[in-house]
Design brief:
Helix content is about 85%, strand content about 0%. It is built from 14 helices and no strands. The longest helix is centred in the first third of the chain and has 26 residues.
Length: about 230
């Protein structure tokens, strides 16, 4: 019975993602974005089927493991556009060096302002980087990996949606600025959205996301001391 549940959980998750992705490419509605729609559908199915979260998580752990290789794959377009990156390396570096601390410490400050528990404060700190980096940081600062993963997804969805609104209000002509906006604020979800705007936007978002993630992981001991 356990093997059947494991296989069903994995297949349902993959099939749901494929169907939702196909629908999103046709409609381009924000509510049909896979990062938002698929988790909601999976949660509904898991609750209806009365499958414990721990069981579902164990049965689909291979998908979690693939987050690492998927993030590394963002390096391919970065390599293909390395000439552009060399031209703008200073701007990109400054953006990451400023954006990473602002994202981390604004999360901590807001959590403390709202009187959230120490565990929630620690779990919120790495919310602005992609999941593999966030989970690595969470383990280094005493946060809950499960809560951090939830906050990362919420940040990605909100950042992707608010990024579109910001571009409508403040039309940025620079592909560098548009890509950095999505990469820094909404990590993988934002990078996917930036890629829809153009190749350069996607490359800049990928680089911003990866550099921000690496910087946060390396800064984890310092973040832990400040919490």
């Amino acid at each position: 019975m356990e093997h059947e549940i494991a296989l069903a959980s994995l297949l349902i998750t993959v099939v749901l993602y494929g169907l939702v992705k196909k629908f999103y490419l046709k409609k381009r509605n924000w509510w049909s974005a896979p990062i938002l729609a698929v988790p909601l559908l999976v949660i509904a199915l898991v609750v209806l089927a009365k499958v414990p979260y721990r069981v579902y998580f164990e049965d689909t752990r291979w998908l979690t493991w693939m987050l690492g290789p998927a993030t590394v794959a963002f390096a391919v377009p970065i390599y293909e556009h390395r000439a552009m990156i060399r031209r703008h390396w200073l701007s990109l570096s400054c953006g990451v060096l400023v954006g990473m601390p602002v994202a981390v410490f604004s999360s901590i400050w807001l959590a403390r302002l709202l009187g959230l528990s120490e565990l929630l404060q620690r779990s919120l700190a790495p919310r602005s980087i992609s999941t593999p980096f966030a989970l690595a940081t969470a383990s280094g600062i005493g946060a809950s990996p499960d809560l951090t993963a939830v906050f990362v997804v919420m940040t990605g969805v909100c950042g992707m949606l608010l990024g579109e609104v910001m571009l409508a209000w403040m039309p940025l002509r620079s592909s560098l600025a548009r890509g950095a906006l999505f990469g820094a604020a909404a990590h993988a979800a934002g990078t996917a959205k930036a890629s829809e705007l153009g190749a350069e936007e996607g490359v800049v978002a990928s680089l911003t996301m990866m550099l921000g993630g690496l910087a946060t992981v390396f800064a984890a001991p310092l973040i832990g001391l400040l919490l």
